[in-house]
Write a structure and sequence with these properties.
The structure is a homodimer.
Chain A: E1 2-8, H1 13-28, E2 31-37, H2 40-46, H3 53-56, H4 58-74, H5 91-99, H6 105-117, H7 126-135, H8 140-146, H9 150-165, E3 173-176, E4 181-183, H10 188-195
Parallel strand pairs in A: 1-2
Antiparallel strand pairs in A: 1-3, 3-4
């Protein structure tokens, strides 16, 4: 079965759009998605960007919120809410996602994105992530405690380094087994075609 | 008839892709395209960018050349060639485009883009623009001379200021009569749907 790595950051607006539609599209195409959360912040920093380009270039940022509003509506998602301040700190959500089993990660990730961009909640807040976990039937306290383990911190650091090694500079991304990189929610369909051999 | 302004910069890679497909799509949808060349450089400068983001952020730049290769192939265009140095100076091409009549501008613009990104020629070279003009049956010397007129220089400056006023920060763009801005070759279909009333 064709495989595609889905690299996403919990603070990333376009990763939200991709997360809400990627699994259905991949499944329909017979492609297995591997959900790989990472941190875009350290990668931005290594390129000399101290914050999101949407903050550094406010005219672009304003456009992008409007683009998100339009695209969320087209995808049938609730009204897009911009977190204040933007970007939210994605660290806790990313660690918690890595505590969970591979099969549990997609549903949790979508629920975190929904809390952030459709309900306007602060995903840096342990109580918010705890509620998301509990609503999905997880032992919230156990997952939150484990998310502080050195092994989980190391895992997220290693994944972020791996993302950088693969040439990732933004989010979301889709990476084929041959290393072919597709950046952006707009490239999901093309990435799926690629791994299915239609180039 | 629904109208859409197509704002493009002659140095912009993704504007090339849009220019090669925009007219056919618009025509099929019953939408009139107005071709409006402008200069992205002064807009970048006003945002603190001294060169293309693809130069400022080289990892992003490298991805973007690969993306262009893939997209050009998908569009059935010749192998994508990156101008060296990048970006090319678009000033002469933009002025010449404004000398021509509205109806002559699309064909000339596509020919300039082809010379630049499919033939690897330097569009800052008067001889190259002259050949492009002559091949289309224009009086090359007359157009090149006129492109130095103060009225043409002022027109390009005014168009660039108008682009900035409309919230433009990149290229290409599609702007509806109600002011709705769509940035990027990827948004062409959505822009066409917008002006046709499907939102």
């Amino acid at each position: 079965m064709a495989k595609l790595d889905f690299w996403y950051d919990f603070a990333s607006t376009y990763s939200y759009l991709a997360a809400m539609r990627a699994e259905a599209l991949a499944k329909a195409a017979g492609v297995t998605l591997r959900w790989r959360p990472f941190l875009l912040g350290p990668i931005f920093k290594s390129h000399g960007l101290e914050t999101s380009p949407f903050n550094k270039y406010p005219v672009k940022g304003r456009y992008s919120w409007r683009d998100m509003e339009r695209l969320a509506a087209r995808q049938g998602l609730p009204k897009f809410l911009l977190p204040v301040p933007f970007p939210a700190n994605p660290l806790l959500a990313a660690r918690a996602a890595l505590v969970l089993a591979d099969a549990e990660r997609p549903e949790f990730s979508r629920a975190v994105y929904r809390a952030e961009f459709a309900e306007g909640r602060d995903i840096a807040d342990r109580a918010v992530i705890g509620e998301v976990l509990a609503a999905l039937g997880h032992d919230a306290d156990a997952v939150l405690t484990k998310s502080g383990d050195p092994a989980i911190k190391d895992k997220l650091r290693a994944e972020t380094e791996e993302a950088a090694k693969q040439g990732i500079f933004g989010a979301p991304n889709f990476v084929a087994e041959d290393g072919e990189l597709f950046w952006g929610n707009d490239r999901l369909e093309q990435a799926i075609e690629w791994v299915r051999g239609h180039r």
